[in-house]
Amino acid sequence: QLTVFFKQGLAIYMILITLSACNESTSQMSNISQDNTNSLQQIQTDIGEIYTSGSKEKHVSTMLSSGIEVSAIVEISDDINIEQLAIYDANIEKQDYELLKQLLFANKEIEKEESSEMADARTDALFHYCIASDGSSLAYTGAGFTYDIGQYSLIQNILHSKEINANQFIDNRDLNFSTQENAKQDVENIIKHLNIEVEKKPICYTLSFESLQSICEKLNKTRRDVFGEDSPFFTPYTCNITDACYIFIYQVTTEGLPISAYPNGILGDGSWTPGTFLLCVYSENGIVEMELPYSLQMTGQASPPAQGLNINHLLEKIDNKFNSMILNGDYTITQIEFEYVPMPINGSRSLFKLIPAWRTSVFHTYQFADEKSNGEIHSVEEEFDVVFNAITGEEILNSYGSI
What we know:
Distance between the termini: 26 Å
Helix content: 10-25%
Shape: globular
Radius of gyration: 23 Å
Number of strands: 21
Strand content: 25-35%
Structural class: alpha+beta
């Protein structure tokens, strides 16, 4: 299951940084008891219980010898057998532009349509762009597409803004125009016709009109403080009652394998690839926004099945990593996810190796003295990921580096 994509969504990862005045410093890096030092041997985690019970989630709580606290949900698809992991070959799947127009512009008049003479290097498809009479637009890249009716920038800011914690809107509430389940069924009907393979259970953000009003006020205040009320760069976000919506974020899969929603590199030849996900916004007007960076088609198995890292082995890898570092502040592992990381073959843009991997989300808090404020103590919070090849145990570094 995709967990935020943006962090919890898509997947595409958010780093949340909050500065606040603080009067005292705390640390969990000292006085680690002998019990905690030996905690790896005390983890009551039965691999058979996690991976064959049909349960997708398992909570792990412990303290590693490096001083890293683990309080994490383990998420892994029912289709994954950790004892028989393999690397797979896959390529970028070309989306059907005419079918996209037919489904997303149903009963709409297309006023403008353009295409580029330059083809997408990943699919050899021409780029296309079209606009309907109601202002909705479709941008097609060959590998993926973006469809929206004009509120896309607000939705993106809600999901990516440091000021907005989108996770507060993940709940089972129903909006007035449709139940969450009925909206989900409409969305998945389109996904089925487009033949895009996704996980069964999406993340769903429920945004009422009142919630959107509050978000707009918060975003506008921040932008007003930065640009000034009269600045030509300040255009306030607005919303109305018809903008209330559900935001569904699906993890993209290929033959049941969950594909990473996060950018990944650097491995082997230093190749880098973005993550993928399917985002859909559903309002009283139906689907008003939809985005897919790309999907993959499996072409074969590239390695024989092998025993993968179980949770105990993974925590040992994490512990070794942090034991080799000088740590500052408190570190907590809050999420452990199993995924397949697509790595380009010999720098190709369309051919990939799907590498099984464990992604661990680490929440880091520390303090510093601000010399510009007479040594005032500030507290900083940040979140980052550490990813390990689930077969070899090697760390897969992010393109922007790793700690």
